[in-house]
Amino acid sequence: MRKIIKNTFFSIILFSTLLSINAFANKGHKLQIASEVYVIKAAKREMKRLINTNTIKSSWKNKIPYSVEKKMFDKKEEWLISFKNKEIKDSNKKIVYIFVDLNGILLGSNYTGI
Q1: How do residues 23-56 score in pLDDT, each as one tens digit?
Q2: For residue 38, which of 1, 77, 94, 100 sits 20 to 30 Å off, Cα-Cα?
């Protein structure tokens, strides 16, 4: 009986210590701002995905970014990476815009840049 109480007490102490360490581990942790190089790689991966899912034509393959800039959208700064394809006949679809937040997380893509 004494051994059971001792083990239970030890388990409670160990468990509460782990919980308190975990609770303080993330305090003050911030995501890092993504570099331009990282954002360009993320945008290229998204272009490949769009081609592979037939969302955009295969003529977009191997296109390099036409423009990379930070822009404000709804009071929040984001990366806007533009790819241009002169082979596309429809003037509304000649540029694909990829949106990435400052932490490098893909937000979406479209033909309007808005």
Answers
A1: 455 556 667 889 999 999 999 999 999 999 999 9
A2: 94
Residue 64 lies in a domain: yes
Domain that holds residue 83: 36-110
Could you tell me which residues come within 8 angstroms of residue 69 by beta carbon, excluding any fewer than 6 positions away?
Answer: 79, 80
User: Is the per-residue pLDDT at 71 higher than 70?
Assistant: yes
Report which of 74, 78, 76, 82 is spatially closest to residue 46, judged by C-alpha positions: 82
Length of the chain (residues): 114
Please tell me what DSSP assigns to residue 111: S
Q: Hey, what are 89's tokens? A: 């006949």
Model confidence band, residue 114 (pLDDT cutoffs 50, 70, 90): confident
Whose tokens are 């609770």? That residue is: 23
> DSSP 3-state assignment of 95?
strand
**6 lies in a domain?**
no
Number of domains into which the chain is organized: 1
On whether residue 23 sits in a domain, the answer given is no
- Which residue bears the tokens 């509460």? 16
Domain contains 83: yes
